[in-house]
Amino acid sequence: MSKLLVTGGAGYIGSHTVRALLAAEHEVVVLDNLKAGHREAVPTGVPLIEADLLDEAAVRAAIEAHRPDAVVHFAALIEVGESMKDPARYYRNNTAGSLNLLTALKDFGSIPIVFSSTAAVYGEPDVVPIPEDAAKRPTSVYGETKLWTEHMLKAFDAAYGLPHVNLRYFNVCGADESGAIGEDHPNKTHLIELALLTALGQREKMMIFGEDYPTPDGTCIRDYIHVTDLADAHVLAVASLLDGSPSTAYNVGIGHGFSVKEVLDAVDRVVGTPLKREVAPRRPGDPARLVADSSRIKAELGWHPRHTDLVGIVESAWKWHSGHPHGFEG
């Protein structure tokens, strides 16, 4: 059994990954500033350090106190639109905060790290499905902050021998099968979450931004990866680093996409009532199709998604949202 420090472990993806790591018999410590995460999402008995990565002394104290064998790094601001309006906040939090963490990991013996990256590092892709060696041209400040952290990790590995795995997620969705934890972001921007909150009467209608894309039904297509499958990928990435595997990057997606209309149709089916929809113009920078080529992680780590049925994915999210219509506070 290894001891792991999980930054952002009280958040959506982090809390699901904490449970997967515990199921794999790891000892887990969570570090989270709780500005977007939730104390209630951390399992009973798991130590929670309430601290911010921008507090360099607190980060170093946590690592010195717990001496983790590896770190899983989720803590970040994640809203694309907000990052364009307040880039200083995103560079400070995501980039400077990560630098504080990496510096501490280097100083305590180059502790291996799994980094929560994003498909946003690719920007507008030249080829779909997108392989890991595709050009990195992020179109948002959020994507840039994640790519800068990847650059820092590469430099730290070359200079200090800091082993790492970058996991580039596509559209994360769904919830734990228990319905006890799920998605509860301060700012609601994810399609399935927005649709289910609309079904609960918390929003009037669903906006479809563009139906004139070069796709079968004219709406954008995205690769939707269930959060528990993503958590499994983190468990495998941790194991590979602890076994001494070299640093690398993996895409994590199911390898095919669903359109906006297909997602909304699935939500209608699950909740039993059609949502009110309104078509609006395209949003600038929205690619027609973003789908992962996840063949590398399948071949090298043996990862395979267990949740590929769209209705099943929506059902798991609906179990959480219908049982917790106002999130953890409800």
Automatic annotation (TrEMBL):
GO terms for molecular function: UDP-glucose 4-epimerase activity. It comes from the Bacteria. Keywords: Carbohydrate metabolism, Isomerase, NAD. InterPro entries: Epimerase_deHydtase (IPR001509), NAD(P)-bd_dom_sf (IPR036291), UDP_G4E (IPR005886). Residues 5-253 form the NAD-dependent epimerase/dehydratase domain. It catalyses: UDP-alpha-D-glucose = UDP-alpha-D-galactose. It is an enzyme of class 5 (isomerase). Pathway: Carbohydrate metabolism; galactose metabolism. Its EC number is 5.1.3.2. Gene3D superfamilies: NAD(P)-binding Rossmann-like Domain, UDP-galactose 4-epimerase, domain 1. Belongs to the NAD(P)-dependent epimerase/dehydratase family. Homodimer. PANTHER family: UDP-ARABINOSE 4-EPIMERASE 1 (PTHR43725:SF53), UDP-GLUCOSE 4-EPIMERASE (PTHR43725). This is UDP-glucose 4-epimerase.
